[in-house]
Specification:
The protein has 321 residues and is mainly alpha-helical. 69% of the residues lie in helices and 0% in strands.
Amino acid sequence: MSKREKIIVVFLCAIGIVGCIIPVLLKPGQYPSDDAFFYLQVASNIVSGYGSTFSRITPTNGYHPLWQLVVSGIYFVVGNDKAAGLWVTCFVQQLFFLGIIYWLYRLNEFLHLRYWYIGIPILSVFYLCIGTYASEAHLHGLIFLIACYYFFRTILNPLRKTTDWFLVSILFSILFLARLDSIFTIGVFFILAFYVIKTKQSDSKIQPVLVLTLPFASFVALYCWYNYSSYGHFLPISGAIKGTFPHFAGYFRSLYPMGYVGGIGTLMALIGALRTKQTGRKIIYLTIGAGSTLLMIYVFCFTHHVTGWAWYYVSGVFLLA
């Protein structure tokens, strides 16, 4: 970045700190949504010895496991003090946001996009102002960008190694645990990876496929087995309650309002993919856009519950930014 661009980035971040971060730390209880408090209550009960339960009566797995693990760790460290737990949780999420800005810069530097920082205000509003606190959105966004960076760097590097595919598989596993419906984007990434291995890999093709597939498949299988053995469902019970699969629902309101915002970002990315001549940008816009589109199609087709909260559409918001 040039000196002028660095000044702009610092200025935009300073506005976010003063306008968004400090007020949250002063009064953290006013910012999380009702749904996000679910994580905090479950974490408190886990630390208290009641296990994974919201009511202390019925066990639950209705959460994204990686963020629940992080929140439970926070509550353990603060001695299960709920006020301190909420404050530290919000502070950790603000650190995640700074990590998001850093990895957004790394990804755009890799794509040779100069004006990447224009998206900082959009992400500041999304992550710091509209009720995503205490949800998995910040952790999901951070892991998503890290996974994207290493995946696309591997895809576009003709000197890629087997260890690169292994790292990508581990990052995909962590991304899945951070937000389970990221499986749609991960699925698109796998299709692209298999295509690259088949057409661009000059040495053995079986080894990179196995190295990419087996660690991720093992993580998913272990998670599903634990759920089924502990709760009687392969996936979180909350998904079974909201979803209608395989029965078609066709409920547009499921996407309102953030699904529409994510849809705009996805549409802009697909248009950008058609306009750009740079291969890396085209691949990134198309794959992330396709994953975001598949998620919205699934929500529309197989959800009879409003799922328009911000944390559902992280990839679409990144495309908009």
